[in-house]
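**User:** Hello, beginner here. Are you able to go through the protein record under this note? It all follows right here:
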Amino acid sequence: MTTHRQQTKLKYYTDHSTVRCKYGSGCWYLRRKICEFYHPPEDTDKSAQSAFSYRERLAKGRERFQLMTKDLSDSVVLAGPQGSNGQVDDVVDDDHSEPVRITGERVLASFNRIDDNIIAVPGCPPKFVPPIDTLKINNSQDQRRVFPTYTFGLEPLVRAVQCMAPDFDVLGGTCDLVANAGSLYRMFNFLANKSFITIRADLEWRPCENGRGTLLMQQWKSDPDHQVSYGYGESFSTATCQFSPNLPDPLPSSFTHHRVLYYELGGLRFAVHCEADGYYDPGETSPETQKAQKVQLPPSPPVSPKLHMLTPISTGSRFSVLMDDGCSSSSVSSPTLSIKYPCGPDVPIPDEHLVEIKTYDARKLRNWKRRESLGKYNNYPYVRYKPDSQLYFGRIQQLYETGHEVGLFPSNVAVDNVTARLQEWEVEHQDDLRRLVQFVQRLCTLAAASAARGHSRMSLVLPGTQDTATARNRAAKLYVRNDDVSLLPEVL
């Protein structure tokens, strides 16, 4: 017999069964099969697919975290993100008399990635041409990214500096941290509680003769997330950024352009490896100005104890393509890295012309604004990644942002100069920058202590807010790394 309560519930359900649920396939009750309103079959199908995708993402997240920590042991807790409950957090110094800002900035070198274990020094970025008409781009999601790899991840950085700035010894105690800009801004985002996925960075401590040491940092090269391209951004950059065919060989066939910067932040000294999507010149430079900007580089890399192992490339080697007459210069090679030097353009590209390209889904933003106007998303603000921290640590002054609808990009030639915006960002994030400085200081101290105990190779794991594998413990941890991967050859 049906109870009165069940009859009342059945009547309530029946009264609403013909009214379509306004939440559609995103209905929380539909996922649990208890929604009292009508859902067409397509809602049910989309909800099931969404639930499957969610479970699949959870499984991939756990699998990635297990792979990330497989060869790690003996963790030490460093700090938690800002405002994290129950976590170890940094104590920011109350003395704010000295603002934390980047000073002493200097471009040490540049290079282009040519092929596995091959670079060209100095490098030149591709030219970015914004679309003046609508542009249709194929989705690059789930496509494997193919980039040159290097036996030692930071060797191109050090070798390029030895070629272009022989007065600067990166490993001689002049730097506290040698890293790529990606590692820096991801550390910052974690400490500012703006990191979505868990990040691992591999570390190595290098002692110096003057009693100080240098911490080497590189993003985890085996991260499966780095091997797959998401969305349309990479395909859009490929279509709009092209290397000039008039550049000396092998620059026109380059993969990517990179710079090595030196700057100081809060008393710490950084050598930072930065990738640039391309360059955009707001106004063409006159021939007279080009002639005045022409620079003279040393005819060959300096001879120093750190380069004693360099040998000329034999004509029959697989690197002999670099001996091409396109650059009337000598090519040198170490056992693990081939360098073509000098190979840059006669007129270097000004740093202020480098541009970062960002794309986003315009439909998603438009749909969110429509739903917000109906009062449906009052407690769920639209979140789109803002690249300010990336631009700040990579010292990029131009930003190009464009939306798309299923890969169809509109005509958009607006490239923004974000210098003033980044200056404001620096002022607004003083506490977070101080937290970063203190975090790096403690990281260097722990790395030096670990190296003194015989463990010079370590890994830093920074949990993300949307990673279920680390949801209960979001503190940064420093692990001993038990693999044999080194970031630099021993000769350096």
